[in-house]
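Assemble and predict.
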Amino acid sequence: MKKTTYTSPQDAEAAFYEALETGNLDAMMEVWAEDEELVCVHPGGPRLLGFDQVRASWAQMLGSGQRLQVRISDPVYMQGMMLSVHSLHEIIAVPGQARAQPVAAINVYLRTGTGWRMVAHHAAPVPQVPQQPAVETVAASPKILH
Amino acid sequence: MKKTTYTSPQDAEAAFYEALETGNLDAMMEVWAEDEELVCVHPGGPRLLGFDQVRASWAQMLGSGQRLQVRISDPVYMQGMMLSVHSLHEIIAVPGQARAQPVAAINVYLRTGTGWRMVAHHAAPVPQVPQQPAVETVAASPKILH
């Protein structure tokens, strides 16, 4: 039973990264859809399918007690009526460790009866993130496909 | 100027993998949208943005003359009116080499004025592909969100 209604994919995405940073499993799984086919690929990991596999992976990741700092940059939004696709960079830092790991992620959100919810998260480590992203204007003015 | 009209995301996807196997750059770029913001992550590579970067990367990959055999499995389809998201495994083999590299990919297609075209391809190497995928029934009966 979902308690929160995310009125936009951006709301769901903000909740996703807040849950990741705070290590809150319940908040994380609140963001994901419940009844749909879910897909999740953590950096370097296998493709996970369905709510139970996805939940188990986050329980393991968030249950370690290690806190992460996640900075999001260079978003590109593809917005439809039912689906919203976000491509972005995640710069993931572990407090006390020098080097942050850049990750390229695609997040997919579905408009459900209880607002927008995540149905796919697909993350891959990348060699580097461009210093001067060419998409700043895109991020400021997302493309809407309605 | 696009010559081909793909009437479904599946048509565009079939053309994408045929171009990859045959090493045909023109056929590959025919699949991609022209005027939209494009995103492409090759396995282990950085995120590429826009038609020119995406074309240059395929020119390099397909121009080597090395032919690839690509087997697709375990597709999960998320289908909207304007956007279609496909998650799948690619089993990529180089003829003459023993070991095939499994890759988890997300392909995103957009309904344009000239049919469905690719706007994102996001691929990541995965440790293994499940022998008995749990999604066979999903693949046989794709979810339609119209």
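Chain B has one domain: 9-127+134-144.
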